Amino acid sequence: MRFTQAGDLKDPFECLPRKPQKGECTEAIKLITQIISGGSKKLEEYGVGKYNDEYIENTFKKAYQNINNEVGILSLTKIWNNSLMWAHYTNSHKGYCVGFNSEHEFFKDYLSEDSNFSRHTKEVTYSDKRVKIPTTLTEPTLAFEPFLTKSTDWEYEKEVRVISTFNLSETMLEKEPYNIYLFKVPHNAISEIILGVNIDNDAETKIRAFAVEKGITIYKAKISDTEFDMERRE
């Protein structure tokens, strides 16, 4: 399965915190340079001058580029029967939905001893406000918040994310503007497969054969007779 760079996801706000403005940084820069310089006015003025709008913009872009080069996101959901998601992510109900066992080892948080390899599973938080980058020494530092905070417009997706460093991937395919990193998810992590209402016969036959071979429960989605809802049957 592909773990996708933030810059290649559908939401243009992915992993983009609220951009700090120069005025917000000035006081923090003054304080830091005063501490470092022992009260030197020249060094304080140099520090404030250096961290201008252009510097902030370049730093912001570089940090975003580093994220896209090093980290990928696997987007999952806690629900299977949202018709909008079937329309958006399965080619108008022509695809299928894979259900995973959330207790499987693959979805447990992992961090190597040297901290260079990591994989974490977290629920997305929905908010009307973008994540704020700390600009004072008293504000808490950020951890996963930029990866996990999305607009309330997306709340219907009830998303869960697996966030991994690309050095845990099995395969890399070169592509512009972003390479494709593929991760091997164990078949025994799959608990069920739900076929879309409009899936074609060839795809359904192949998926059913795979499910039987692996001992995976398989369902076929259907439109509710009475509600705006999706149902399923074995």
Keyword list:
single chain, 234 residues, alpha+beta, four-stranded antiparallel β-sheet, 6 helices, 29% helix
Quick summary:
The protein is of the alpha+beta class and 234 residues long. The protein is built from six helices and 13 strands. Helix content is 29%, strand content 25%.
Structural overview:
The mean pLDDT is 89. Helices cover 29% and strands 25% of the residues. The protein contains 6 helices and 13 strands. Helix 1 (22-37) runs antiparallel to helix 2. Strands 2-8-5-4 form a 4-stranded antiparallel beta sheet. It has a 4-stranded mixed beta sheet with strand order 3-11-12-13, covered by helices on one side. It is an alpha+beta fold and 234 residues long.
Q: Please report the number of helical segments.
A: 6
The largest sheet is: 4 strands, antiparallel
Mean pLDDT, to the nearest integer, reads 89
Q: In order across it, which strands form the biggest sheet? A: 2-8-5-4
Query: What helical percentage do the residues reach?
Result: 25-40%
User: Taking Cα atoms only, what radius of gyration do you get, to the nearest Å?
Assistant: 23 Å
CA-CA gap between termini:
25 Å
Global structural class: alpha+beta
Portion in strands: 15-25%
Order of helices and strands: EHHHEHEEEEHEEEEEHEE
Spans of at least 5 consecutive residues whose pLDDT stays below 50 are none
Strand tally is 13
Large-scale geometry: globular
